[in-house]
Amino acid sequence: MYILMPMDKRYIITAHDYPEQLKRMIDRLSDENSTFYIHVDLKSDITRFKNIVSNTNVRFINTRVDCIWGDISQVTATLNLLEVAMKDAPKNSMIIFISGQDYPIKSPKYIDAYLESHGEYDFLDYTTTPIPKDSDIYRTRVKKYKINLSSQREDFVILDSIFSFNPGNLKTILQLLVKGKLRAKDFFMLFNPKRKSIFKEHYKGTNWFCLTRATLEKIMAYLDLHKDRLLKYYRYTLCPDEQIFHTILHEIMKEDKTIKLMDNLHFVDWERKNVPLPVTFSKEDKGLLLDQPEHKLFARKFRMDVDGEILDLIDQKVQSRSVAP
User: Name one GO cellular component term (predicted).
Assistant: First the structure.
């Protein structure tokens, strides 16, 4: 008799705050087939997390980095998590990338059933057509240089090569030099006539994913083969975590027709008006969250210290939804 093996799930998590909320999320997701790997931002006190998140199926990785919004450090943290998780993940594993401010909107049994019934798929949100070369996104995220002025959120500038001879660009560079805000290595990088990417086309999407071990092995092999050039290029890219995996996967899929993609498993609200985005959900969003389609297994983002009641409401509802349709 054939027995369906439970889906092995390896959650990789980036966190910087709210250890109590992180523990609650892990408690809700935990089952005998789930292991959690956590990267705590180097700026944060990891002892706070270890004292609260002490589950036996949790691993805190040692290769921590100072994560800066929109920076290559986000990619580095993800790669460090993948390196550890894939060392002991069996071949049938799904590696699921989430943040410490996510929360499941389906039960562990539902998540298992859904992933098992879609076992031949990978889940990643990305554009099926390349970033248009005449778009603002292409100019700011592909063509120009993103240079950090500090490790503070959004403290960066987007600059052209010096050889663009753009008066406004040259003025900004001069002002930064006078103020001592432009590091020498970044300044000399601007002397390249243009940025050099190994890709002819670039793709983008959200950074959260759920990928099979087999697909991730292909991505990591491609990255290892071109690592120096890729990381040099994406070091000066705005939000590289929303491009690098997507573009690599597209390159692989040109030759490898075995990879099947579906939409990612997260619900994130970027559409609401007159509020900071993405939306931080509250109890008023109960209906919105619980009415998400069957493939939306997680939502973000949440702040338990701002509105913990929404998490209680989700928990009460998902207990009755154990099996995916």
Answer: membrane
